[in-house]
Automatic annotation (TrEMBL):
Residues in Helix-turn-helix domain copies: 87-135
Any one GO molecular-function label of the UniProt entry: DNA binding
Designated name of the protein: Excisionase family DNA-binding protein
Signal peptide residue numbers: none
UniProt key word DNA-binding: yes
Top-level division of the source organism's lineage: Bacteria
Keywords assigned: DNA-binding
Length: 152
């Protein structure tokens, strides 16, 4: 499955109008939260006289939508990658926030599994995200130790 560029921004940041739209939608989302954490919306097609369609979002789906809107509202672009996708080395490097040559070194050291497709390397998105979570955990642990050592 390919990487999806969310929001139709392509290679650009959201415009001020798009940011404002995201802020409005985020505000509506926050106001429609039920005590269970789920959300209920009523949508009506523009120009339609039919009754609005009722849409329920469970807590986890609503949280993904909330995060997406918050990022766009702050003027940042978004990229969505399905977990089961296979990434090129360039896509994986972008997801990790590292250079492609550095990623290649990680692959060659066996820190992230990959497979060869002809002359190209393919990395499961799930493996990239697992590596990232591991690195984040190590970074958090080191920071906590530094703060503890400094008495903070």
């Amino acid at each position: 499955m390919p990487t999806l560029e969310a929001s139709g921004f392509g290679d650009r940041l959201p415009t001020q109008i798009e940011q404002d739209d995201a802020k409005r939608f985020l505000n509506i989302l926050e106001k429609s939260r039920r005590p269970s954490g789920a959300y209920t919306f009523f949508f009506r097609e523009i120009g339609s006289h039919d009754a609005p369609a009722e849409v329920h979002l469970d807590k986890s789906l609503a949280e993904v939508l909330r995060q997406l809107l918050a990022i766009i509202a702050h003027g940042q672009a978004v990229q969505i990658t399905p977990i089961r996708a296979e990434l090129s080395t360039l896509q994986a490097a972008k997801a990790l926030g590292v250079s492609r040559p550095y990623l290649i070194k990680l692959l060659e050291r066996g820190e992230i599994p990959f497979r060869n497709v002809g002359r190209h390397r393919r990395i499961k998105a799930e493996d990239v995200f697992d590596y990232k979570r591991g690195q984040d955990a190590v970074r958090s642990k080191v920071l906590a130790e530094m703060l503890r050592d400094d008495g903070l």
